[in-house]
Amino acid sequence: MLEVHGLYCERDERILFKDLSFSIAPGKALQIQGSNGSGKTTLLRILCGLNSDFSGEILWQEKPVKQVRSEFCSDVFYLGHAPAINRTLSPRENLRWFSASQGKTGNIDISTALDELGLAGYDDVPCFMMSAGQQRRVSLARMKLTSARLWVMDEPFTALDKRGVSEVEQLLSDFVNAGGSLILTTHHPLQIACDIDVINLDSRVQESAP
Amino acid sequence: MNTDMNKASSELGLLSVMGATVRREMLLAFRNPGDVINPLMFFVIAVTLFPLSVGTDENFLSAIAPGVIWVTALLAVMLSMDSLFRADFEDGNLEQLLMSPQPLYFLLLAKIFSHWLVACLPIILLAPVLASMLFMSPEGMLPLVLSLLLGTPVLTLLGGIGMALTVGLSRSGLLLAVLILPLYVPVLVFGTGVVQAAINGTAFSGLLALLAALFALAVSLSPLAISAALKISIN
Question: How many domains does chain A have?
Answer without folding.
Answer: 1
